[in-house]
Amino acid sequence: MNIELMLESLRETSPTEALEPQAVPIDETFVTLPPDCIHAAVQVLVECFDLRHLSAITGEDTGDEIVLLYHFWDRHGLTLRTPLPRQNARITTLTDLIPGAAFYEREVSEMLGVAFDGHPNPRTLVLPDDWAGEPPLLRPEKRQ
Amino acid sequence: MSRITIPIGPQHPALKEPLSFLLTVEGERIVESALRIGYVHRGLERIFQNRSYVQNVHVVERICGICSHAHTTTYCQGVEALLGLHIPPRALYLRTLLCELERIHSHLLWLGVLAEHVGFTTIFMYAWRDREIVLDIMEKLSGGRVAHAVNVIGGVRIDVDQEQVRLILARLDELERQIESFLGVIQHERTFRARTRAVGYLSIEQVRSHCVVGPVARASGVDIDLRRDAPYAAYGQLDFRVITAEEGDVWARTMVRALETIESVCMCRQLLAGLPDGPLAVRAPRRVPPSEAVSRCEAPRGELIYYIRSDGSDRPARVKVRTPTLTTLATLPDQLRGVNTADVPTVLSGVDLCIACADR
């Protein structure tokens, strides 16, 4: 995996952002992108770099916003981070590029209430069918 | 021919864990299937946020009853990276030793389950009898057969002496002979091949598009193994082969796992022979400075990944776990399409599902 080349291509997908990798422990590169650039960025990664192994999608409610982390791996880790507003959080699905993202997106969707536009089967994954409560990983003190 | 839809599960004889299927059949052939998980969802990712880093070692150990040590290794490795700790080499070797013993245990358990589902009860009995050897070794080392509590943040809590090393080596020889005899059966036994060849087929393209990991991916020709590709613990010091196959069916998965088990026995010998002297653990502070880390390990079923974010307190702000089974589950509708209903248990056990891991 050539991280420098990838970052160069990702910069082209979101030209307005200062796209700098963030140093973290363990061999992993973190990059922050705006939500509307994620699909285009992943398309570049899949088509130009054959980076198709999406290890996981982490969703987290930080209290101010919902952060999504797309963890890719190909002999080296690359994580794309994107912030979403807590109200009406939505983002384009990656299932058309990476079918394996379907389960990850369903889990983030039910746990944090994020809508994935274009997901072929947006049902709950692990919560009961008749679950009527709030998405369980939203921070309780900040629930609206 | 008319189509009939049959619900199977969540409780059913094919798997010991709850998983529900809606199979649409035309006669004996499956044309469509939909699956439902979540029956053993325990809300662990929320629980992690309410426990200290030290308490969470015990919680992650209970995600799975088979690969419990892989979970604590991945978690501890992540927290240690956040703390910037340097783990003593002896601790890394012992951690790796348990990882490989656990892989042997997991693969033998799986071989027994598969053998039972294809109607080969003899191999089921033998595989589970010989699995006791590795369970005995792990019990001698840690005091526990499946929950070992070996890892602590900063190292391990167990040690081995020369007497134990001698005993373990003798039992490993015994185990290797048994696995080699299983390998002969898998390769040459006609009935076994008839039940597993061309069943549950996955192409390399299907494996890659579903981000499948571990032995299932390797049996379809995808050459990935974190132990070699991103060495952690003591794997960088070991000499081993990554086993792959091209066939992509249940038979190939059986071959890959059986050969991997023999590799693991060899790795255990190397680890015991090269065990460095020194301390077993370093002291870890209770509070973790604000940072984040992604930790990956090759669990018996493939890549296990933890994302951990710390906020400066003694509790993690977020721990995300993605277990290897979640990726293989998504391929089941593809594997079941066109399969005879009698082969459903073979397909299900062929991928080595761990529902407790997938649901968390």
Protein traits:
heterodimer, A: 144 residues, alpha/beta, Beta Polymerase, domain 2, 4-stranded mixed β-sheet, two-stranded parallel sheet, 3 helices, B: 360 residues, alpha+beta, Cytochrome-c3 Hydrogenase, chain B, 3-stranded antiparallel β-sheet, 15 helices, globular
Overview in brief:
The complex is a heterodimer of chains A (144) and B (360). By secondary structure, chain A is of the alpha/beta class.
Describe what this molecule looks like in 3D.
The complex is a heterodimer of chains A (144) and B (360). Chain A contains three helices and six strands, in the order αβαββββαβ. In chain A, the strands form two sheets. In chain A, strands 1-4-3-2 form a four-stranded mixed beta sheet. Chain A has a two-stranded parallel ribbon with strand order 5-6. In chain A, a hairpin with a 3-residue loop joins strand 2 (54-61) and strand 3 (65-73). With 144 residues, chain A is an alpha/beta fold. The model of chain A has no long low-confidence stretch (mean pLDDT 82). The N and C termini of chain A lie far apart (42 Å). Chain A has a domain at 3-91: NADH:ubiquinone oxidoreductase Nqo5 subunit (Beta Polymerase, domain 2, 2-Layer Sandwich). Chain B has a single domain, classed as Cytochrome-c3 Hydrogenase, chain B, CATH 1.10.645. In chain B, a hairpin with a 2-residue loop joins strand 2 (20-26) and strand 3 (29-36). In chain B, helix 4 (89-117) runs antiparallel to helix 11. A three-stranded antiparallel beta sheet of chain B has the order 1-2-3. With 360 residues, chain B is an alpha+beta fold. Chain B contains 15 helices and eight strands.
